[in-house]
Each structure stands twice: as C-alpha cells, then as structure tokens.
Specification:
alpha/beta, 20 helices, about 10% strand
C-alpha cells in the first residue's frame, strides 16, 4: 500500500468537519485541492472553503445557524493567528538558492531543475529581508474575517459606546494583522471605540512558548523514527532536479533540501512574487501527489506531537493553553457584567491557537491518537491552523428575562465553521451551550497541571 492509499482508504479517511459528521475523502477530492497538503501554510480561504466543500459540496465559507429564538448576540471572544507571511527563515531562502547555484556551476541541473533554479532565485530575491513578514494577502485575510464577523453578528457592533479591546503579541506580523482587522472594523462601524495594544505583558497567555521545543521527538524515538522512515520519498524529487548523483552526493543533504524546498513551495500561496509567471515552481510540479502526501504527514505529526494531546509528550501542548483559557473566561465575565466591551480580539500564532483548540477539544481536536500511521485519518493540522486561523466564541443574551431558559448562551466557531465541545458537554439547542456549563468546563481546563 503506497502513501496515497494509506491516506485515502475510504473506510477510515476522515476530516474534521463536525463532531458527529466525518466524511470520507476520495482521491479525486484531494487531487482537486492539493493545498490541503500545505499544512499550516495553507491560505485561509483554501482551508475554510475546501473543508466546507467536503461537507456541503459548495466551495465557500460555511452558512451559520440562526440565533436561538429570543436571544441576541452581544459579545465575541476571539483568538486569531496572523495572516499569510513569507517563510520564517531567511537562511532557508538562501540555502535553497545556493544549492541550485552550486549545481548549476557544474552543469548539474536537469532542464526542469534549470527552470526551477531561475524561479527559486526570484523567490529568494523577493523575500530578501522579509522572512516572516505579513504579506498583502495576509492583511486581506484579516479584513475579510472582520467583514464577515460584522455581517454575521451585526448586533454585537451596533449602538453607542461599544468598545473593542484588541491585543497582539510583540511579533510585527501579529500586530499588523490586528491593525488590518481593526481598520476594517472601524471602516464598517465608525461608532466603535477600538483600542489596539501589543506588549510583552500579554505574552504569557497570547504566545505561551513553553511547549516549543519541550518535545522535539526526533529520530531518537523509535516510534517516530519508524514513522519518518516510511515517509522518506526524497530521492525522486532530487532526480527530477539534479542531473547526476555525484552532484547530489557533493552538495545536497537530502532530508534538509527536500524539506526546505517543500516549505518554500507551500509558502507561495500566501506571497505574490513579481514576474513569477510560468510557475514551474508550483507545489504540484515539483512534488507528485504521493510525495506531497508524505511531506504533509510528517508536518501533520509535528504539530500534533508538540502542540496537541499527543500521548508521546504527555499532552504538554494542550497544557500550555491553560492561561489563555483563564483569560477568555475572565474577560467574558467582565463583558457580561457590563464593562462595555463588545469584543476581545487577540492576535497571535499557530502555537497559541492549536493548543487552545486542542485543550477545549473542539470537534475532537484534543483527542489522543496512539497509532501514528493513522493519525492523518483523524487529525489534520490545516483544519485548525491555516494562515489567519481563528477561534470565535459568540455570546448571546436572552431578550426577556421573564421567559424560562438560560440567561446566556454561547457557540464556537473554528475558522468560521460551527464546532462543538466534547459530547460530555451538553448543548441547549443545536450548537449552542449554556454559558454556565461552558464556564464550569473552562474553569476545569484552566486548572490543568502545566508541569
């Protein structure tokens, strides 16, 4: 059974769409949406619309359920990843171009390799001193999320004296994502009083880096080593680019080169490079679908083992989100008490969003999976942390207190699709929960042992 057959075995291949609905993925569906293999580099639209197409057949943003009768949305608690950016490492851009230059100096590139060399050089030049920077596409992603937030929940933003509290980490791409989002809000709703801030003071819950590097889980772990060995398909990629094995042996570290090239190519969907017209460098021209699948499976495992509820690491990833859960609960309490804040907006990173979603265990993102070879069937990084990925918790207030029923209800949107807490947490109706029930759940998560 090859890698694609592993991925696409129809009896088990699933995507996170909702807690109670898992859809088998066919070869044709994945081949029509190769961006799924871009891991956390996938652009926001490609992730959200692609997953919605699997659920509904329509490539668009999901349609949200109407508010329960007698309830009106009044507050939103949000955490968003920055938008699309250049690849984070300037050294990686230079490394790839330099390998091509060395091989070209000795006539060691295939015709395809020579074309790819020209384009990778353009990519390197375009990214000069821009590694990690937010791109125009990244800014527009946040503008679009802001527009849809207002469209979906207009009652939250209408009226006088409505405050928006927006905070970001100290990383520039996060602050610029916040700026783009809030500028769009202000453009649509000039009545809003928007406060933006970025400070190290917020890092402990906005960018909880404790889990970073706590579990590298390299090839020293036998289970991981076996996983990676099965997914080693670098030889075919090198043969497509380099004309002889001596060049490869002389200049190329296969694992590093192939992985770095993969990073370069999956990042392109979020970057507009001038004069890059022919696109020989597209992901699907350098990697076959099977090769992309292998690269993605390795990336998918990386995110799961370090930032989710992986049994191999004792769940260190999810524990890191406890402080953020506490802040969400505290600020929601303040809003309910009447502090005038219509939305708490937080702008950070995939390393903040993924542990949060996994700790909440939304649509099973926090489940523990022991069989690494089947992980990709049940857990997919691109469904949680695309560029500009976000969690929105929408709060509803009962219009008439004399009517029976809970006073406040909430629902959860992960990347603008409705998701659910674990089945043990009962809903009131549809995807709507009693805030008291959710608050109690958050209190338990907040107190999780972080050691």
């Amino acid at each position: 059974m090859n890698a694609l057959q592993l991925i696409l075995t129809s009896s088990v291949a699933t995507f996170f769409i909702s807690q109670n609905m898992q859809a088998a993925v066919t070869n044709a569906e994945l081949e029509s949406q190769p961006d799924f293999f871009s891991s956390n580099y996938i652009s926001y639209d490609a992730s959200v619309k692609g997953i919605n197409k699997l659920a509904t057949g329509i490539y668009d943003f999901p349609t949200l359920s109407a508010a329960p009768e007698g309830y009106t949305p009044f507050y939103i608690s949000h955490y968003g990843r920055h938008g699309s950016r250049y690849h984070y490492s300037q050294e990686d851009y230079s490394y790839i171009a330099e390998i091509f230059e060395k091989a070209a100096s000795e006539s060691g590139l295939t015709p395809f390799g020579r074309k790819l060399f020209v384009e990778m050089s353009q990519i390197r030049d375009d990214a000069d001193e821009r590694a990690g920077d937010l791109t125009p596409i990244g800014r527009e992603q946040h503008r679009g999320i802001a527009r849809r937030m207002v469209k979906n929940f207009p009652a939250v933003f209408t009226g006088e004296n409505k405050k928006i509290d927006a905070k970001s980490t100290t990383v520039v791409r996060c602050a610029l994502s916040m700026t783009a989002f809030c500028q769009e809000l202000n453009k649509i709703c000039p009545n809003l009083d928007i406060d933006n801030d970025a400070s190290s003071k917020y890092q402990y819950y906005m960018c909880h880096g404790k889990s970073v590097g706590d579990f590298s889980g390299g090839n020293s772990n036998p289970e991981l080593a076996a996983f990676y060995e099965k997914r080693d398909a670098g030889d075919a990629v090198l043969e497509k680019i380099f004309s002889n094995k001596n060049i490869i042996k002389k200049y190329v570290n296969r694992e590093k080169f192939v992985k770095t090239l993969y990073y370069m190519l999956i990042s392109l969907q979020g970057v507009d490079v001038d004069n890059l017209d022919e696109r020989n460098c597209s992901l699907t021209k350098v990697f076959t679908l099977e090769e992309m699948a292998l690269q993605w499976q390795a990336q998918n495992l990386y995110w799961y083992k370090d930032y989710a509820n992986c049994p191999l690491n004792g769940g260190v990833g999810v524990k890191a989100a406890a402080s953020l859960v506490g802040k969400i609960k505290q600020e929601a309490d303040d809003a309910i008490k009447g502090n005038g804040v219509a939305a708490n907006l937080r702008f950070g990173h995939d390393t903040g969003l993924l542990p949060l979603v996994a700790l909440l265990n939304l649509d099973g993102a926090g489940e523990a999976h022991k069989d690494l070879d089947l992980l990709h069937n049940y857990w997919q990084d691109f469904s949680v942390i695309p560029m500009a990925g976000n969690l929105q918790i929408i709060f509803y207030r009962k219009n008439d207190l004399s009517v029976n029923g809970c006073e406040y209800m909430v629902k959860f949107l992960l990347n603008e699709r409705e998701v659910r807490l674990p089945a043990s947490i009962s809903t009131v109706t549809g995807n709507y929960y009693d805030w008291k029930t959710v608050r109690e759940y958050l209190s338990k998560l907040e107190s999780v042992d972080r050691n």
